[in-house]
Design brief:
Strand order of the largest sheet: 6-7-8-3-9-10
Number of strands: 10
Radius of gyration: 18 Å
Strand content: 25-35%
Shape: globular
Largest sheet: 6 strands, mixed
Length: about 240
């Protein structure tokens, strides 16, 4: 039985006013299931980041509905949306967004601090999340002491430490070389096996397609194709990260 983590129905998003008004999303329908890694691909300006922002409750749709774990975002004020996002959505960005004066463990623990969890167990949760991405030995390292791939894995640990049911990643491999990109995608693919978590990745990077369970393509604000990918088995068997 499919465990739906997020459901978008007839999403329209208009940006700008007057002559600059643009319909960035045009009736998007999308369901993301737990245990799957979904890629969203398409040209610049096609609506990829706008859709990710709507799914992550950072932008409200002009019309249509978004449900996260069965709870609709319709009618929620900014504080309620922030709470829904905080409790259910983890974000991974191209530029990592780590605080340079905090250690890896402290950067991960920030998510728990925001939730008000400052208990001794919060530190253990942060270290456990770092272990999940293979960086328990870097818990006390500062971002400047980490490679780009390691910084991105810290960002992934931060996204999962609060048990988010949806992980949204915006170009997570764009700033990485092939080796580090492969390492980051291997981590994400492993995390995506959890049936209680859906991963949604916006990307231009064709090298990560072998890791996907599902590949969506968007053009001019509309999803134009929805195909099954090779998924984790194909990724594990891959001999190299295609260049």
């Amino acid at each position: 039985m499919t465990n739906t983590m997020i459901e978008a129905t007839n999403i329209v998003k208009t940006l700008g006013d007057g002559a600059g008004r643009v319909e960035a999303l045009k009736g998007i329908n999308l369901s993301l299931a737990g245990g799957e890694l979904t890629l969203l691909m398409g040209p610049s300006g096609s609506g990829k980041t706008t859709l990710l922002s709507v799914l992550g409750c950072m932008l409200s749709p002009t019309s249509g509905t978004v449900q996260i774990r069965g709870r609709s975002t319709t009618g929620l004020d900014s504080e309620e949306l922030a709470g829904l996002r905080r409790d259910n959505v983890g974000f991974v960005f191209q530029s990592y967004h780590l605080f340079p004066t905090l250690t890896a463990a402290e950067n991960v623990r920030l998510v728990l601090d925001v939730r008000g969890d400052r208990s001794p167990s919060a530190r253990l949760k942060a270290v456990a999340a770092l272990a999940t991405v293979g960086l328990s030995h870097k818990a006390h390292a500062f971002p400047r002491e980490l490679s780009g791939g390691e910084q991105q894995r810290v960002a992934i640990a931060r996204a999962i430490v609060g048990d988010a049911s949806v992980i949204l990643a915006d170009e997570p491999t764009a700033a990485l070389d092939s080796e580090n990109g492969h390492a980051v995608m291997t981590v994400l693919a492993e995390i995506a096996k959890d049936p209680a978590r859906a991963l949604f990745i916006v990307t231009h990077d064709p090298r990560i397609m072998p890791f996907a369970d599902r590949i969506l393509r968007i053009e001019d604000g509309r999803i134009v194709s929805d195909q099954r990918g090779g998924g984790h088995i194909r990724a594990v068997r891959a001999l190299k990260y295609a260049s």
